[in-house]
Write a structure and sequence with these properties.
7 helices, Arc Repressor Mutant, subunit A, Glutaredoxin, elongated, four-stranded mixed beta sheet, single chain, 2 domains
Amino acid sequence: MSLQAPKMVDAILKSHPGSQRDHLIPILQEVQEKLGYLSEDAVVRIGRHMSIPASKIYGVATFYNQFRFQPKGKFHIMLCRGTACHVKGSAKTLESLTKALRIEPGQTTRDGLFSIEVVACLGACALAPAITVNGEFFPRLSQMKLAKLLDDCRHKAGSVAPAAKEKPKTTTPRRGRGHRA
C-alpha cells in the first residue's frame, strides 16, 4: 500500500462522521474506488472509525464479489463463464489462464502484471468464449489466441519472459508398412 493510502482512507472516513453499519458498503466502495482494492490497513481503519470488528467488515466484504483484497494487475482479465461461453469452452480457457499465470481468479501475479476475475456474463454470447483485458474485448478465444495475447501483454509491459509453454510432444517417425517399432 502506498504512503498516500492511509491519508486517502482517513479522508473518506472523515467525510462519513458518526457512520453506522448501514454506511459500511458505501464506505467500502469508496475506499476501493480510491485505492483499487481493500487493504488490510483500510479494513482496520474502517473498523476503528465505525466501532465494528475487522472480522465483521471482512465478512461483509467477502459476501459481495465486487470487493477485492488485492490490487488489480496492470492487465486485468475478466473471463466470462456465462452459459454460451461455458458451452464454447471457457472452462478450458480459465484452466489455461490459471496455469499460464500461476494464479487463481481473484488473485494478481507476483509481478503485478496480471489479475483474473471471473464474471457471470460479458453480454457477447454470439462471440463466445470471450474475455476482456482492461475493458478491451477479445472474442472467440482459442488457446493459441490466449497465449499470444498474454505474450503481447508482457511485451507491452516490457517483460520479455514468454508464457510458460509445455514441451512439445515428440512423436516417433512412422516406418513403412509391416515394420514394427
